[in-house]
Amino acid sequence: MPAPLRTRLRSIARRLLRVHGPPPSPRRLPPLDELVLTILSQNTNDVNRDRAYADLRRRFASWDEVADAPVGAIAHAIKRGGLGPTKAPRIKKVLRSVRESGVGLDERALRGLTDEALWKTLVALAGVGPKTAACVLLFSLDRPFFPVDTHVHRTAVRLGLVPPRANAMVAQALLQRAVPDELMYELHMSLIRHGRHVCVARRPLCSECVLRDSCPRIGVTESR
Asked: I need a surface site. Which of 145, 196, 201, 214 has the fewest CB within 10 A?
């Protein structure tokens, strides 16, 4: 990992912290809860994700009940999050796979594994990719993993932190090696906020960007 990139990431973290302020404290849900919550977050906003998660927990008393429930009942419970018919079988299959591996579906599930073992366990589950696995490790267990969602990916590409054609999985692998452990959570959250409010998808607010002086994208635009 080139030293200049790590130095630049530290500078970006400091600047974003000054503009956006410190991120909220991590939620620290049990690993299974975080896993399901992250699946529910796919292709929806945080408000609808949280509503779907709350509805699911109200409808079913335990994750074992969810694992044994008909897919239609799960889809109905999470309908406020959107894509219920797609997410319901994924949640059911993930929970059943965890249980069939000999792990109980309770708050202690997955906690005792090492970083490497837990990572391998999670990404082996159908429908669980690197971003979801990293969310469980970072948000639930405070392990040094760096999730890359659509906002982080877009911002990282525009800032030249990863190659222009790097997809989210490649970007996550590169940033996982580059981001200092103590900045994993803060920088992840800061880049999300920056991507949502400044470095937006269609018309980024470049004139308002605190990183403007070091952004290759702006340099190319202004040289035309």
From this structure: 201
Shared domain check, 36 and 19: no
Alpha-carbon radius of gyration of the chain: 19
**Residue from 79, 92, 93, 131 carrying the catalytic annotation:** 131
CB 6 within 8 A of CB 84: no
Residues 39 and 8 in one domain: no
Cα three-residue angle 217-19-205, rounded to 5 degrees: 35
Q: Nearest 5°: CA angle at 113, between 107 and 117?
A: 130
Residue with tokens 């008909």: 70
Count up the domains in the chain and report the number.
Answer: 2
**Confidence (pTM):** 0.92
131 is catalytic: yes
Q: Tens digit of pLDDT for each residue in 116-161? A: 999 999 999 998 999 999 999 999 999 999 999 999 999 999 999 9
Q: Is 99 helix (H, G, I), strand (E, B) or coil?
A: helix
